[in-house]
Design goal:
Length: 388
């Protein structure tokens, strides 16, 4: 997740640049003014509290604003990140945002400041007043707004300069040049974040073959528990012998065996751009383990995909595979195939449901040829900010 705060004095062009960023990077726009008006219109609990304060001539407190922002973020797990416009406005709100981001296990990636001198700002706003008919775009009001911006907002910029995430863009250039510079700044931030894709799907959905192909296409590391376990079996290590016994009985391999192998793989692949995980996590416990493993590396899950295939088609595919040289021990009989499908239903589907609430899960039709399914998956990842 990438979170951007867009700043600039009145007339800097934040509205124009916000629209471009939202479209280019699938960010969700957060304007405190817009959010507050929505709550007031909806008559929500927070909206009613704000309305009573406004009616009494007061300013809506940060306590209400931060709750509205938090609700908005948690309501949009499908977003690649969030674009903040108008928040934080004060030094105190910087700390409020820091605390909120920490609570949501994320952070503000950078603050982009559109820098325009006062003379240019005044000229732009006066011109806007003529063309738009806005009564607040007169010289007296404009100068007051600029004074307030410098008094309250410049300390915010210094706060993020001290954190090392301040990015300045010359807002006096053409709209196209400013847009290019802002996008370049965002892309620089994006490439600092590792990419972690988790692919789910019932046994027989093609998640393994598709995961390998996607990893190669997007230059990611394919991390699947199956090959790692098979390597242990091939070497006939003590762990490999235990794995062999579990395979033959149709049971899942324990976390005590899987997790050290995954951790070792992550440690060996520090310099890779990112990972595609297949076969892990399979259970709710493993989902928490993966979150912990990634958090230890200073990263988290980027996108979750669930490949959907009908039950009848799954059984056909697994049965067909059981009659080939690629037959796996756990696919050797119909009973074992059914057992694996049932285990996915009882143990892995709850994981997908959990992630759907937290991160959002992209469902992909897994029917058709390999090329057709790959095209669907690649199209989704192409639209993901982390890949573009």
């Amino acid at each position: 997740m990438i979170n951007i705060a867009l700043f600039g004095p009145p007339g800097a062009g934040k509205g124009t640049q916000s629209e471009a960023l939202i479209k280019a990077f699938n960010l969700h726009y957060i304007s405190t003014g817009d959010l507050l008006r929505r709550e007031l219109s909806a008559g929500s609990k927070l909206g009613l509290e704000a309305k009573s304060i406004i009616s009494a001539g007061g300013l809506v407190p940060d306590e209400i604003i931060v709750q509205i922002i938090e609700n908005t973020i948690t309501e949009h797990p499908e977003a690649n990140g969030f674009l903040f416009d108008g928040f934080p406005r004060t030094y105190i709100q910087c700390y409020i945002l820091e605390g909120l981001m920490n609570k949501l296990n994320t952070s503000l990636s950078c603050l982009i400041s559109l820098e325009v001198d006062e003379e240019e700002s005044v000229a732009r706003l006066l011109k806007r007043g003529i063309t738009s008919g806005r009564t607040d775009d007169n010289e007296t009001v404009i100068l007051n707004r600029l004074r307030e911006y410098h008094e309250k907002t410049l300390p915010v910029l210094q706060f993020y300069k001290d954190k090392g995430i301040y990015r300045a863009v010359n807002g006096g250039n053409s709209v196209e040049k400013v847009c290019d510079d802002v996008r370049a700044a965002v892309k620089d931030e994006i490439h600092k974040y590792p990419i972690n894709i988790v692919i789910f799907g019932y046994p027989g959905s093609g998640r393994g073959s598709q995961g390998k192909a996607l990893a190669k296409h997007f230059e990611l590391e394919y991390l699947a528990t199956g090959p790692m376990l098979d390597a242990e079996i091939a070497r006939q290590t003590p762990v490999g012998k235990k794995i062999q016994e579990l395979y033959e009985s149709g049971a899942l391999v324990s976390d005590e065996i899987v997790v050290p192998l995954i951790e070792q793989k992550l440690e060996q692949s520090k310099d890779v751009r990112g990972f595609i995980f297949k076969g892990f996590p399979r259970t709710l416990v493993q989902s928490y383990i993966l979150d912990g493993l990634l958090r230890k590396r200073g990263t988290n899950i980027t996108r979750i995909i669930d490949i959907e295939v009908s039950t009848l088609e799954l059984i056909k595919r697994l049965d067909a595979r059981s009659k080939t040289d690629t037959c796996m021990p756990y696919d050797s009989t119909t009973a074992k195939i059914v057992q694996r499908l049932q285990e996915h239903e009882s143990k892995t589907v709850p994981v997908i449901e959990k992630y759907a609430q937290i991160h959002g899960v992209t469902k992909v039709d897994g029917s058709g040829t390999f090329e057709e399914v790959f095209a669907r998956l690649a199209s989704i990842l192409d639209k993901t900010v982390w890949i573009s």
